[in-house]
Amino acid sequence: EERISIMTRSVREDQVSVASEEQQESENKPKRRGPKKKKMTKARLQRFKVRRMKANARERNRMHGLNDALESLRKVVPCYSKTQKLSKIETLRLAKNYIWALSEVLRSGKAPDLMSFVQVLCKGLSQPTTNLVAGCLQLNPRTFLPEQTPDLPTHLPPAGAVAYPAHFPFQSPGLTAGLPSPPYGTMEPSHIFHQVKGQSYGALEPFFDSVLLSDGPAFDPPLSPPLSINGNFSSFKQEAAAVADYDKSFSFSVHYGGGGPAGHAALWSNPRCGDVQVEALMGYDGQSHHERLMNAQLNAIFHDS
DNA sequence: TAGGCCATCTGGTCCT
DNA sequence: AGGACCAGATGGCCTA
């Protein structure tokens, strides 16, 4: 009903605008270029209104489809809450970071430490979203946010510079306030790492303990975990391992704003994991079709478009 | 009250 | 001609 009223109102406004246009035409003004506008007869006006209403309906449907797609994206990024929805822009940013982070896990073949992972996830996100992600992980943002510096670039740093997870383009005293109030969203542990039965998480154990065993704030139950423990991520990892076996020098190109072969970025910089270098390899011959395809896809992601 | 986010309308452009 | 897509404008709602 609300939509219909909006539509009727807009049509009424249409009539007003058309009427004023006719008025304009009747006045002595410099001749307009382009095709001469036909006079709005009653029939033409009616057709115009119908066409406009149909176009509006199509546009509404189109936007609803877009929103539906965004909603399904919300459900597969790490932090999903029915009660505290991520905004559109934050959803896209988080999704981009998440893809980046998972790609990096695939590439390095080892689990990053939690802090680095969360830092990558939160890069470029607003403070409330960062808090939400922290809430999902039951972390205090203070514990993983590096020292804030204003006016940092929002794009990736140039070749040779340390990239993720060094920069957060916002600064807020609110970070010192700790977590937002419940309800938080959910972070499936399987969103982050492939769990092998009986495997020790090492340094990550406290994280899994806190997520899996906590009786802290009430979380929304997970809806549809995108990466089940034995699911997609597992097969991705196996595939990556197979490719790595095929050629130990396998890697993908990462270009930070014109970075050449010398360009690289230190990732997962952590004493426990050591630094993983992302090498920028140009024109690598001997790649299989699969590898070239994968490189292309990864490059598309890392170009930070 | 300002600012962020959102839905909707609208006209322009491109494509079929 | 009509549909898809896009970006600008506008107004409503919510929160700090």
UniProtKB/TrEMBL annotation:
GO molecular function (one): DNA-binding transcription factor activity, RNA polymerase II-specific
Q: Which GO terms describe its cellular component?
A: cytoplasm; nucleus
Compositional bias segments (type: Basic residues): 30-42
Which residues fall in a coiled-coil region? none
Record keywords: Activator, Cytoplasm, Developmental protein, Differentiation, DNA-binding, Neurogenesis, Nucleus, Transcription, Transcription regulation
> Where does the chain cross the membrane?
none
Domain BHLH as annotated: residue spans: 50-102
Organism, as annotated: Tetraodon nigroviridis (Spotted green pufferfish)
A Pfam entry, by short name:
HLH
InterPro entries linked to this entry: bHLH_dom, bHLH_transcription_factors, HLH_DNA-bd_sf, NeuroD_DUF, TF_bHLH_NeuroD
Q: Which GO terms describe its biological process?
A: axon development; camera-type eye photoreceptor cell development; endocrine pancreas development; inner ear receptor cell development; negative regulation of Notch signaling pathway; positive regulation of transcription by RNA polymerase II; posterior lateral line neuromast hair cell differentiation; regeneration
Provide the protein name: Neurogenic differentiation factor
Name the lineage.
Eukaryota, Metazoa, Chordata, Craniata, Vertebrata
* Positions of the UniProt region annotated as Disordered: 1-42
SUPFAM superfamilies documented for this protein: HLH, helix-loop-helix DNA-binding domain
Subcellular location(s): the record lists: Cytoplasm; Nucleus
- Where are stretches of biased composition, namely Basic and acidic residues? 1-15
The annotated subunit structure for this chain is: Efficient DNA binding requires dimerization with another bHLH protein.
